[in-house]
Design a protein that fits this description.
The complex is a heterodimer of chains A (522) and B (307). With 522 residues, chain A is of the alpha/beta class. Chain A contains 23 helices and seven strands. The radius of gyration of chain A is 26 Å and the shape is globular. The chains are: A alpha/beta (522), B alpha/beta (307).
Chain lengths: 522, 307
């Protein structure tokens, strides 16, 4: 089986230079790579020992019966290569690359996909419709970004002020991370790190599934042998986790389904058309929209980004961003289910949530220094979605994607919460530490860390009832849906760190003060 | 140019995990094992989740034939891990080690609970055995007397759980009426002074049984020496799911003379008093049971009650 390193990117994005630099390390390794080029720039061919280079025009790459393709297939049959380096034309899609490789008839496996991009042109390409770029970014293992002003050097790396090369690289990196949070993004001058990423050890996908399972099995198995306390803790954690997960799952699925339906079924320009441009009507409209639109916090960030991009003023857009996850109908249902017979908790949650959203949005945007943020293009459609023949199929696909993307955060939050609860119970700690101002702040901090879905966090909060005072629980219910670790990751693709910091701190303080002032009435 | 459609094994884990978890949910519902984790009101939601997961699994069947360039499996852990948790032993959640306050119910504050009014109590029919008629004067001769009697007794029994002292003067708490009785007892403990009480419950957070009083103190003079051997005769109570399980019960004082094991179930019988008991952040007037008999017993099935 011959491993393939696939380099993709648009013309003059730095692919050839990158390949040339990487191949320079091949000398004296005894490896015999084959370089297939579907694009020919000004960069001279590398002079690597043992390197075989094959030029294949894009038209030939797409035609299975072209003479060049047949020649390439014959070359692969006749000669042994240690690996293939494929320089792929960025205008051709992932699907076409896969087809090309599958039709070569040899034992070929893509080992790494490296996307090369130019930081000056990438933002425009990201926003362009029908671009194959999203597909590449979805599949890439590594993105290498070439700076507009070349290598900034170590001094440039440390210059973070706007306009410097490194800050513009960071801006591009953040935008890519917003699309694929797990995508590794490096600057083109980090050659050593690029080499390590390309040729270093890669954990196989199957191992990523089985290693955590093996770890849990070993931990539990060993605890049975030598630590009954650990065994108790693990069993209680597992039991509570499963219980809360089963309780949260329907609401999480409902939230995911509704969010997907809104994103797919509601036309993109509808919000802009009906959103008032004046401040007060805009704020009111944002609250009403937040009250009735069933979008959880995972969906409100993309909606917020779309609203800002369409020219909606920052204050109403932020109000919607913060209010929707804490006020929407799904939250109503789950809060009522979690706290049966206690409609006051729901009323306080919705009422104080609206107040906190309004005050935070005004504080962040109207106070001196606030307001301007670094916006980016709306996220492009996911690769492959255009292949779905019906809206129903697209809807189910989006549901699955959202479920598996956000679900791990939910499960992680549940397990973390269950671990803490089980520990508290096993150690016999008094619950009074989660009352008073410290309790409110503590539960708000916990909500931030747990990053639970707003459609199901009430059920998790209800499990803390014996361990936290009602105001502390209210702090958990209020702050968690507005700002948490998961939201920050999503927001990072839309706004500058300073803005996010200001938003988070303002929201925390306002929620705390509101809960401290009114939580006692619960 | 079309890619040949062939099954992509790398896509199978996602579909199988969706399908597997949907089947797991259906199994829980059909076997009744969902009650191990959730209260009954979650059953329709669980069915909804199972159906939606089945729909997602069905929707992913076509994608099984789409090429997958970058296999990912770890995301399936979100369904696989909870599934594996199911196979771990059910832990003891009685919280015997936990010496916190006794939970009554978060659903209602004690001051909001109410007993039947005098007028309501008068409407509860009681059979006057000697005369063979109901004390509310209703005419049972026109119908099957036994049927009417059963119906009225059922109605009366339901009212009993809201705090009415039974005819024989013994409050018998069980899985069905535990929650209602706890509410009633904590709402007006003084109404149950001197009333006999029985329940199968476990020993929760007990202090060492030393300096126990020899007898039940007079109602007007609560025993001060009983703090050290007080415990709670408790039942586990599930509010929404097993994670919010809390012990709810009656503060008790062991007068049996024998040592009770923390966490074990006993069939208790004794007499009730109204005294200051720990509640929330402080003390509140609540029921205290002076235990006269405690017979070791097996845990009830199911072990927890619903509020």
């Amino acid at each position: 089986m011959i491993p393939i390193y696939l380099f993709c990117g648009f013309l003059d994005s730095g692919k050839s230079t990158l390949i040339r630099e990487l191949l320079s390390a091949y000398d004296e390794t005894g490896l015999r790579p084959l370089l297939i080029r579907t694009e020919f720039g000004d960069v001279p061919l590398p002079e690597t020992e043992g390197l075989v280079c094959f030029d294949l025009p894009p038209a030939d790459a797409l035609s299975a019966n072209s003479p060049k393709r047949l020649e390439l297939a014959q070359l692969l049959r006749e000669q042994d290569f240690s690996e293939i380096i494929l320089e792929w034309n960025g205008m051709l899609s992932v699907k076409e690359a896969h087809l090309f490789l599958s039709e070569l008839g040899a034992e070929l496996r893509i080992r790494k996909i490296i996307f090369a991009g130019d930081e000056a042109r990438l933002p425009a390409l990201l926003a362009a419709p029908s671009s194959p770029l999203p597909g590449w970014l979805e599949q890439a293992d590594l993105a290498v970004i070439r700076g507009a002003s070349g290598n900034p050097g170590e001094a440039g790396k440390r210059r973070l002020f706007p306009g410097s090369s490194y800050s513009s690289f960071r801006a591009v990196r953040n935008r890519l991370k917003a699309l694929r949070p797990d995508l590794k993004v490096l600057s083109a001058w980090e050659t050593e790190r690029i080499g390590n990423e390309v040729y270093g050890f890669t954990t196989p996908a199957a191992a990523k599934l089985f290693l955590p399972l093996l770890f849990v099995a070993l931990l539990y198995g060993s605890s049975r042998l030598w630590n009954p306390f650990l065994q108790d803790w693990l069993e209680q954690t597992a039991f509570r986790s499963l219980s809360v997960f089963l309780q949260s799952l329907p609401y999480f699925l409902l939230g995911t389904a509704l969010s997907s339906a809104i994103q797919i079924l509601i036309p993109a320009g509808l919000f802009r058309r009906y959103f008032p441009q004046k401040l007060l009507p805009g704020l009111f409209f944002a609250l009403i929209a937040g009250l009735f639109l069933p979008v959880c916090d995972c969906a409100s960030v993309p909606v917020y980004r779309g609203l800002r991009k369409q020219g909606i003023p920052a204050a109403p857009a932020l109000t919607f961003l913060l209010a929707a996850p804490v006020m929407n109908p799904v939250v109503w249902l789950s809060t009522l289910a979690a706290f049966p017979g206690q409609p006051r908790i729901l009323l306080f949650r919705v009422g104080l949530g609206a107040a906190a959203a309004l005050l935070t949005a005004l504080a962040v945007t109207l106070l001196p220094g606030g307001g301007e943020m670094e916006l980016q293009a709306a996220p492009p459609a996911f690769a492959g979605e255009e292949e779905y023949s019906s809206r129903a199929e697209l809807f189910l696909s989006r549901c699955r994607r959202d479920f598996f993307t956000v679900g791990p955060w939910l499960l992680g939050g549940i397990i973390f919460s269950s671990m803490a609860q089980s520990l508290i119970r096993l150690l016999g700690w008094q619950p009074s530490f989660l009352s008073g101002p410290t309790g409110i702040a503590g539960m708000m901090g916990l909500a931030f860390l747990l990053s639970l879905c707003s459609s199901s966090d009430a059920l998790v909060a209800s499990s803390w009832f014996a361990l936290a005072s009602p105001p502390a629980l209210l702090g958990f219910l209020l702050f968690g849906p507005m700002i948490d670790l998961k939201n920050l990751g999503l927001l990072r693709g839309s706004a500058a760190p300073r803005f996010i910091l200001r938003l988070s701190v303002s929201c925390f303080l306002i929620c705390f003060l509101l809960v401290f002032a009114f939580g006692g009435l619960l | 140019m079309k890619i040949k459609k062939s099954l992509q094994p790398a896509r199978l884990p996602e579909t199988l995990s969706l399908l597997g978890f949907a089947c797991f949910l259906l199994y829980l519902l059909l076997s009744g094992k969902d009650r191990l984790f959730l209260s009954g009101k979650s059953r329709p939601w669980l069915l909804f989740a199972a159906l939606l997961l089945l729909a997602l699994a069905a929707g992913s069947i076509r994608s099984l034939f789409r090429p997958l360039f970058r296999p990912r499996y770890a995301h399936c852990l979100v369904l696989i891990l909870p599934l594996l948790f199911f196979f771990l032993p059910v832990p003891d959640l009685r919280g015997a080690e936990y010496s916190g306050h006794i939970a009554v119910w978060p659903a209602e504050a004690p001051e909001e609970r109410s007993l039947p009014t005098e007028a309501e109590e008068e409407r509860i029919p009681l059979r006057t055995e000697a005369a063979g008629e109901f004390n509310d004067g209703s005419d049972y001769a026109a119908a099957d007397p036994d049927a009417v009697w059963q119906e009225k007794r059922q109605e009366a029994a339901e009212t009993e759980t809201a705090g009415r002292i039974p005819e024989d003067g013994v409050i018998r708490m069980n899985s069905e009426n535990h929650a209602a009785w706890i509410r009633a007892l904590y709402a007006s403990p003084e109404k149950f002074e001197g009333v006999k009480w029985e329940e199968l419950a476990y020993v929760y957070a007990m202090a060492p049984a030393q300096d126990a009083p020899a007898a039940i103190p007079p109602a007007a003079e609560p025993a001060s020496a009983t703090d050290e051997n007080r415990f709670a005769a408790a039942r586990l109570t599930m509010i929404c799911c097993a994670a919010d399980m809390a012990s709810s019960g009656i503060v008790s004082c062991n007068l049996t003379g024998k040592e009770l094991d923390v966490g074990k179930y006993y069939r208790f019988s004794g007499e009730l008093r109204a005294e200051e008991v720990p509640f929330g952040d402080g003390q509140s007037l609540g029921p205290v049971a002076y235990i006269l008999e405690a017979a070791e017993a097996e845990p009830p099935e199911p072990e927890w009650v619903l509020p």
